[in-house]
Amino acid sequence: MRILFAGDEHPYSAHALKKVIELARHTWADVTLLSVLPAQSSLQGESLPSQDPRVLALRRYREEFLEVLGSSDSPYALERWGHEWVPLRNGSWEEIKVCRGVKKDVKVRIRAGNADTEILNEADKDGSDLIVLGCAKGAQCVWEASAATPRKVAGNAACSVLLVKEDKPIRRILACIDQISVSQESLEMINQLVTIHNAQLELIGLTQDGGAKSEAYTRLIQIGDYYSDKGIPVNTRLAELSKFEAVISTNTGQDLLAFWMGKKSLLTRLFPRDWVERFVGICQTSVLVLR
After folding, report:
1. Which of 37, 106, 132, 217 has a CA 20 to 30 Å removed from the CA of 18?
2. What are the φ/ψ torsions at residue 146 (nearest 5 degrees)?
3. Helix (H, G, I), strand (E, B), or coil: what is residue 258?
4. Using the 8-state DSSP alphabet, how is residue 111 labeled?
5. Overall average pLDDT of the 115-136 stretch
């Protein structure tokens, strides 16, 4: 598994990093920590704005990650290590570990440009399976300097995206299923999050105008059995797609709302292309977009 954490210097990013650390603890994923400087910043040549708040925050995030997961029996452990920034040919910078005994990568990278564009470019370049971002507490999912970044990343990423609300602990996971085929990787990601947070799992089968209920129910039972076989208690229910947006616009408390956006998804077919961005903007809780 390859996780891309994209953050800035604000508390919601530090909060999201804790989720990355827990995922890495359970999956031993390859992790990249990324921050994006403004478009006018120059990353060419031999200099880097090392005192920029985003650069300093990245250093803190790396140190926190290794402080928690860098023990001698961890694949992230370093026998002898140091870090230095190295300019890359494409104009970005990468903070390289100089060390021995590394079994798993924790890359630290800087880009310059529009935050959402650069995050998506890094995810494509790195072959990320999951992008993790924090977002500010309150009704909307925003970043301080670039409010639309979380929404645009969730709407346009080719891989799964986890948006972590700053002030929302996760006590229940609502997984909304509306297509026949879901990947093993996505089912396992839900499994990991349930385990990490000791959360209650509820599967919601989405139906359209009362149709395909037997098919949706069969799908729910199959996926429910998958989690039950792993020892995870699970509740299942059906819900009309027409009521879905009303549900997500209300305060869901300490929940994580997960949904699949595949080619056969009812959500993909029935809502406009930018629906995911709008959905993230009104959702009151953390969101996991599975692809």
Report:
1. 37
2. -145, 80
3. strand
4. E
5. 95
